[in-house]
# Entry
Amino acid sequence: MGLEGPEDLEQLAIKKINGGQVKEGLKLMLRAAKGYEEAGMSEDAARLYKYLGYVLLERTKSVEKARPSLLKSAYLYLDLIDGEISRPEVDIDLLDEYCFSVLEIFATLDDRRSLTKYAEEFAGIYEDLGASYQDNDDIEMAIKAYESAYRYYRLVDNIEAYKRIAETMITLYGQVAESRLESGDIKGAAEAFYRLAAFIRALFGYDIHFIEMMDTAAKNFERASKMAYSDGDLDGTTTCLVKAQYSYLLARNFNRAKLIGLNAARILYQVINAHRSRGDDEMASEKLVELTEALIGIGKLDDAMGTYKSALEGKSSMEFRVRVRLAALKRFAALNSRVDVLEDIENIEYYTDRGKYTKALELGENAMKLEELADVLEKIHEAEGVYRSL
# Structure
């Protein structure tokens, strides 16, 4: 065959696996992974060992058969993490990918001891990074690092540590909100208030402190919608209105949430028709999902599912599926003051913000398995139909 290196082996392996010659493909994949490792291409080696492990797990249903490849991947990622944090300029997104892969692997292997050990270790790394960014007045990067530290401390139930991080995040998001208000970025300020509310909830629960901050977020999203409307930006108007609707919902201001939702739906019908008339099917689908969210928020689930079907006919994406589940979860959490569901929502949004829609969807699907949401989840699955696999 004249294969020159691991890249060629990987391509041939994929071709074999896709063609049904799985056993031969996996052998080639293992050779490619070893080739990458010998060439010092640790990231590619870690990626392939991980792929190999998950394919073996899927085919054999045996964790033990997948264990060697997955462990090899995890330890390569740990080496990559050590290398990344020793750099003068840490690529925090890349570090996130490496840390996420390690914890995902140990969770798959049901190795609670290693999962706890490394989650705690990673939390400490991110907390140190956050402090460094904060000292250098890089608030945006400090927030990003601290958010990861917070999630990992939550994962191992280190209450003292995650509450300490939550207090820091409240301060930082407060600074961001104030700065954005001063610069006239009302929507940006609303987003900051929304995030701030989540960390207030971590300290105080679903009480008046959380409700007041979420109400502040809602009012600012509403202000932003009016500014967008005055500028003739109907797309921006509806996006801000739906965000205001759900912020009011979580603030348990149900009357205001319903009024905002009805207004958003009314404008969205116009916006969708305008996009369709221009032949912009992709934007029409985006706005149909927004309309789905608005309708779920006001309790019109059957109408929402009809709209959702129409959205999927134009474009099916993982992000759409996550957003619909989030909408249903937020309404349920608000109506029932469910702190546990709010925590699920915050975890889903954390992964959504980082573009990890597969993980976000997995969490969303699991969160929807509450007995009280069984009918809603069934209707979502029915609406997704053949599009669920896309």
User: Anything to note?
Assistant: Confidence is low (pLDDT under 50) at residues 386-390. The first helix runs from residue 6 to 18. The two ends are 35 Å apart (CA to CA).
